[in-house]
Design brief:
Blueprint: H1 2-6, H2 10-15, E1 24-26, E2 36-38, H3 45-51, H4 61-73, E3 84-92, E4 95-102, E5 108-113
Antiparallel strand pairs: 1-2, 3-4, 4-5
Amino acid sequence: MEILRSWGLADQVRARASEVEPCGWVTPTLASGEGTVIPLGYPSAAEAAKVSPSRPAWAPQDHLEPILVARLRGSPVAEVRFGCELTAPEQDDHGVAAVLHDRSTGATYQARARYLIGADGAHGTVRD
């Protein structure tokens, strides 16, 4: 949330976030109604308020991602493409060059960036 706040997006994210205090619940059976609350390692709203103007938010991915995509599309230094496959990444002393293949049109594009982030999942090919 600190990063989202620095980008001016915290209010948008919080608008549809759930108001929850994250915790675990240990119980002998799901039907017993008796149990023990256990911490999950996330700060409570009160704990977060002591160290930050931003408290944690529990926002669904389908709410957060459009906010991030809109922010990137409004940036003069970013380009967003969906349905593209990254191929032939090559790193040199100045960054990374790669080819993007648009799966719907068959077009290819050359891309150059300072960084390459392999965010294509656990079985993705980028990190290989």
